[in-house]
Amino acid sequence: MRSICIALTVIGVGFAAAAFDIHVAPGGSDEAVGTGAAPLASLVAAQGALRAKKTAEGLPEDGATVWLHSGTYVLSESLRLSEEDSGESDRPVVFRAAPGEEVRFVGGVVIPAGSFGPVAVEALAARIDPAARDQVVGADLKALGVTEYGALPDAFSEPAAVPELFFNDARMMLAQWPNEGWAEVAGIVESGPAPWRNHASDKPGTFEYAGDRPSRWTTAPAVWLHGYWCFDWRAETIRVAEIDTEKRHITFVQPHCYGLGSGNPAPRRYCAVNLLEELDQPGEYYLDRESGALLFWPPAALADARILLSTLTEPVIDVDGASHVILDGLTVEACAGTAIRIRGGEGCAVSRCTVRNTGHDGIIVDGGLKHRVEGCDIFDIGTAGLRIGGGDRRTLTPCGHEAVNNHIWRVSRRQRTHAYHVHLSGVGVRLAHNLLHDAPHQSIGLAGNDHVIEYNEIHHISQDSDDCGAFYMGRNPSERGSILRYNFWHHIGSTFTHGSCAVYFDDGSGGQTVFGNVFYKASGGNFGAVFVHGGHDNLVENNMFIECSAAIRQAPWDDDRWWEMVAADLWQNNLLKEVDITKPPYLDRYPDLAGFMTPSDKPRVNRACRNVVVNCDDFVKGNWEAKDNAILDHDPGFVDAAALNFQFREDSEVFRDVPGFQSIPFDQIGLERDVATESSGS
Predict the structure, then answer these.
(1) In terms of Cα–Cα distance, which of 260, 257, 283, 280 is closest to 270?
(2) pTM for this one?
């Protein structure tokens, strides 16, 4: 299996130097003509020149290229590309980094090292831990022209778009306690309202803490606590109303949405964030919104350091209604919002780009047709790495989007749950040959129909959460027809999990296919590597399960619960109003939906056939029709299991003993190496 660097394929036609070239360089001039020898200075000027040339001359046969030369392009506003900036299907408009040159789009400001000095605001200096005062320096953001700092809501799961500090391309830590790991709730005094367990309350929630650390926070104007307050699949940040240091009680300003308490078996965990009193180690910072002071303990020498403050809350590059536009070879970074967004249009692409250090999502593809994200590195992302969706669910018309050969890791840095490496929605998205790894919660989220997820490697997921899957979908049985095939799922779950898995069909999900996947150490607790909660009509076929606590499981719903869900407002809306599963095209595409809304004696089952289960503690539980599966306690003939090469040798017993088992193309899973297309401008 190839798990290597990003692809270097250029999307679309193989471009030679386009006849229609515009050059941009930070040292250029907007009064220049825009050639390689006399480049423009700004993106806005290049966009204007491009539009003027298109209007006057039309697009030549090779399309048009805006060549971006080495340097940092600081954007205080989005680069907005609209229908007026479009190319044509065989004549694209390309914004491309010049060969061998590093082009950085920054959604923030560069802070000169010389801006930092001794902390000038006495009241702030007094709040710093005495042991840290000599290490902490301050900068006056107002003097640098930065006056908008955003605000933290009283309670939030999705983070606010606020400035963050980056030092030598690494995200610094907003001052917090503990510096690593979590504090644990000592006891619940009052949970606040918890409708899920029929607990009514008019109080916001109070808990007991251990130790005396919160006594240091009483000088702070506000304190926020981030934690897993009830379930380990829902993290939330809530502002503190009161700290009672005598009773060791903390009371919130408003309730947690599920109430305080143990919905999962693990201890309830939390940390304090945005506290100057906890700025006590290198790499931590604090932004005082009243004075505009940025306080920072540098992790290395300030001289010659690259220091950025993210400020742009809108997408750095916003492609809205444009078609056949290609972004190639760019680095987009250090923004308070999203790096790149594509809405509407057709045939746009993000190719060979590096997207990092965002406050919110890395890349969003929202609607339109046949857009493509390929060969990108997307990492250190505040929320989701890539959100991609389109098509029409009412008519089951596919969008044709693809995300191929991308390396996405360290997502969910600011939203620890429900912020995925990739989230697919709509109809007909293909996710192929990607490498996805390192996330506290889930990796691939799916909503919609007829998506294809294939040849991806997904590992070290759900590292800090519970009751979750590396892949997740749920609560809408009209979402059917998706295929998960030829993926390698491994090292899934945390040490404290009561239930984690690779593939999770939750809350009644059905009608999906899991074919030809390899699952290694991919389940924990009472979940199988493939886990179904309540749903049916799922097919699990021709897969390998290796050293999983359980291979396949289902938590069945009895008839009362099933028909209660069918009659409830959520499913009535999902199944009959948003779409109508009782009529074509749904009945034509998914025959299993016939009679879905009417109580019957028809068994609700899933199918598991021709799977190979090796050294797993358990094979199958729940409502499954299992046939022709092999349950083994030994290596059946892997090429090199110790090196995680689970390709079968040609003489493997599996081909003899499992009727109809098809060889899994394990060596084709993961990132692919492609030949770079050499391009140059005149």
Answers:
(1) 260
(2) 0.95
